[in-house]
Amino acid sequence: MVYAYRYGRISKDEIKAVGNEDIEVAINRSIANQDEDTKKYCEKNGIEPRDFFFDKNISGSTTNRKSIIHLKELANLEQGKFVIVVTRGDRFGRGRALLDLIDYFDIQFNIRIISIANDIKDEIQREMTAFTSGFLIVLGRYNNQQLRERKQELGLPYFHPPFGYKYNLKK
Hints:
It is a single chain. The protein is of the alpha/beta class and 171 residues long. The chain has six helices and four strands.
């Protein structure tokens, strides 16, 4: 039977959003909900739930988290023998950290990461789309600046004249 280590995290931003509610109560409730949700998922899908690890008040953009380090140690000992179940992919990591953790667990140790709320591949796709979009925006701005500079060097106007008008290039 396949078994799972389960992971949960509550971030600094979520703690700030609590507002008037007792912070410690909110943290404990969020962690307890993640624990319960991952356990139910495992039981429903024939996976033996093992320990639940969690980090609190730490960003998902870093891989240097106590529980993640512990899961890495388990991966070294029990290569490919378990899966990691999380409620959402962003609980496991954000941005580059998520990609690094998937690379570490899935590719190096053949340990699958299961996200209950959505497929982990969707999370990766979303991160890559955001990266690609940002890159294309920067590239477009750079290209626009280069075009503007070339036209200025040649003494050409940067913009196109309205329909029906022509430039008077004679000065």
